[in-house]
Amino acid sequence: MPSKPKRPCSYPNCPKLTHGRFCEEHQRLENKRYEKYGRQYAIHQRYGRAWQKIRDSYVKTHPYCELCFNDGIMKLVEEVHHKIPLSKGGTHDTENLISLCKSCHSKIHAKDGSRWNKRKG
Fold first, then answer.
1. CA atoms of 12 and 4, how far apart (whole Å)
2. Euclidean distance between CA atoms 13 and 54, whole angstroms
3. What would the mean pLDDT of 40-69 be, rounded to a whole number?
4. How far apart are CA 34 and CA 41, in angstroms?
5. DSSP-derived 3-state class of residue 7
6. What's the CA dihedral at 45, 49, 54, 55 to 10 degrees?
7. Position 41 pLDDT exceeds 70
8. How far apart are the C-alpha atoms of 30 and 104, rounded to whole Å?
9. Which residues of 31-60 are buried (b: 16+ CB within 10 A; e: fewer)?
10. What spatial distance separates the first Cα and last Cα of the chain, rounded to whole Å?
11. Where are the beta strands (DSSP E) in 1-121?
12. Residue 82 scores a pLDDT above 70
């Protein structure tokens, strides 16, 4: 089966044809722009170097998934979760943190719909 025809690069005034949105040269430029001004900027405001230190010290004192540990299962921590999200007024205080494995972390977000199915009704 033949592949799709190439289309013009989406970068303004670029005459090159590509299979993706941008040609190779402009894809690199777009990636740099995105990393500098896009999603990562907002994340670094909340989860910068200070968060990494808080997270690491919390993991040292709580090395196992706290939900699995309550069920008698010893799984190493993979995520540190905010019980009250920062976007809803939560803080990095240890009372607001919980150590979780990836499956428990996903279950929490799936249950409250904060990661998937953001639009309801």
1. 22
2. 47
3. 85
4. 9
5. strand
6. 90
7. no
8. 35
9. eeeeeeeeeeeeeeeeeeeeeeebbeebbe
10. 41
11. 7-8, 17-18, 79-82, 97-100
12. yes
Which of 110, 113, 47, 112 lies closest to 80 in space, CA to CA?
47
48: Cβ–Cβ under 8 A, 6 or more apart, which residues?
A: none
Q: Which of 28, 8, 4 is nearest to 17 (CA)?
A: 8
The phi and psi torsions of 116 (rounded to 5 degrees) equal -120, 160
The two tokens of residue 36 are: 């500098």
Q: What one-letter code names the amino acid at 114?
A: S
What is d(CA 28, CA 25) in angstroms, rounded to the nearest whole number?
6
Share of the chain above pLDDT 90, in %: 54
Is residue 56 within 8 Å of residue 31, measured between CB atoms? Answer: no
Asked if 43 contacts 28 with a C-beta cutoff of 8 angstroms, the reply is no
Interhelix angle for 24-37 vs 39-46, to 10°? 30
